[in-house]
Amino acid sequence: MSASTTPSSRPAVTEREAREVAEAAREQHWRKPSFAKELFLGRFRLDLIHPHPLPGDEAAQRGEEFLAKLRDFVETKVDGALIEREARIPDEVIDGLKELGAFGMKIDTKYGGLGLGQVYYNKALALAGSASPAIGVLLSAHQSIGVPQPLKLFGTQEQRERFLPRCARTDISAFLLTEPDVGSDPARLATTAVPDGDDYVLDGVKLWTTNGVVADLLVVMARVPKSEGHRGGITAFVVETNSPGVTVENRNAFMGLRGIENGVTRFHQVRVPAANRVGEEGQGLKIALTTLNTGRLSLPASCVAAGKWCLKIAREWSAAREQWGKPVAHHEAVGSKISFIAATTFALEAVTDLASQMADEDRNDIRIEGALAKLYASEMAWTMADELVQIRGGRGFETADSLRARGERGVPAEQVLRDLRINRIFEGSTEIMHLLIAREAVDAHLSVAGDLIDPEKSLGDKARAGANAGVFYAKWLPKLVAGPGQLPASYGEFKHEVDLSGHLRYVERTARKLARSTFYAMSRWQGRMESKQGFLGRIVDIGAELFAMSASCVRAELLRGQGDHGREAYQLADVFCRQARIRVEELFTRLWTNTDDLDRKVVKGVLSGTYEWLEQGIVDPSGEGPWIADATPGPSQKENVHRPIR
Predict the structure, then answer these.
(1) Catalytic residue among 84, 281, 427, 440, which?
(2) Which candidate, 262, 267, 346, 415, has a CA 20 to 30 Å from the CA of 41?
(3) Annotation says 427 is catalytic
């Protein structure tokens, strides 16, 4: 194939082929224990998370020293309101962050980085993001999914020595996977990287490239055609943004995170040295997914920061604002919201710190824990921000600038709500996270019984699968009948002035119930299970609540043992667990009592135009144009808005 060859159309992919691509990108084996995986199998392995792991003394000292410097910087050099108004982080702020070493927090010290672990990296992101969420995104997109993390995991020594010192101090990086017509279905990826001598030639268009407008280095996912000497497949490359043929065609604007440098990037005949390929051909999606196992933990960190801020504003405002003779906090309708914000913030910090420390220790496989943290934090943080807006009333809907202009404190509650909304979409939407986690949660079942429900397997394969499944379930199912959760004395070390032991017994009992429900559903629906996305989403949500309950109790006991607000931590964990149990029971009810079948019928009617009459009586203010922009490869016809910061 010549270097000038470009795709004439997007790859035609069947549903089965798309699943096979996603399946091939998964980590196929479980080489380390996983608390969350065991939880979905009905086994409550408290020993995997308790006692709560902690950073070493040296790591903690290094982390605390950097946090002190970062706090001084964001308090004195960062004007969050200015960033919101101008929709841009000032260059001098970015330069200051570079000088501080903030772009090299996770990069090893031998490459010029700070060598922080995930725990202190997340604390730093939370601190920086509280000053301006756009700064948190800038730093996390660069380090969590940009060039440093893939090279740390999959890069050659030469690649690390060449690129990591740049990323630690001077260069900004970005990660490019999404295309105008490709989101969470990478099998249809259209950007190509055609081998040509010692180079690859890139052609294609990438959408929503966070940091892409200012990035110096890009991690680009592109499809290598299969040919002699090339296995082909989706492959990762490090690309210099100033390479000929790279054009940033647009700086995108959003309802929130107005300061982020997110764009559309076009590649036309861009030559990339083979030495810049990360991993082998065809490993691109595996690299992306593995990177995201820990990379996703940066998002819960920003959610924790938002929760802490919501709690602070709710406390201060609800004590100052009086209604009917007393502060609004003393009215139950408002008080219940404050209690929810306080308890949930405690839980989100517990989940984030626990998953982060587990990532640093590397004793456990945290692919499910990281995904659960992202899913749960993004949903709960959005709810907390919405409740804060409600507590603030009309002032919650009013902008901070407007509040300041008429003489009141400029509280950006509506901005936080807008900024948090994207968390439920990027780095895996809630719907995609449900499916991703569900796939991992049922992995043990598919490993032993998958061939039984695969219509393309032979009778011989099904017979062997049946025998294996019989052995597995004969041992597994009896263990779901009884356990420590039914013994009143279990988990007694969590019983003090406030008793958390009952919540852990509930988690153990409920984990077994969850596993039984999953098994029953697989038996009932078999090969149709994957289409039951409503059911699978609820299964995952139950698991997320149980994980959060477990993390909260373990964190409370850690703080009690350290003499650090232990009594108050126990109170918050108790309230959170009681609130979570109500949500869990509702989810269990909705497993079997729901409108899923009716919803599917209504959807068919909507798409066929049956209910089009319901849309009458309005005007549509949308502009003209296609639903999805044309991404045909070729030279750019637009001005390059790339803006490197030097």
Answers:
(1) 427
(2) 346
(3) yes
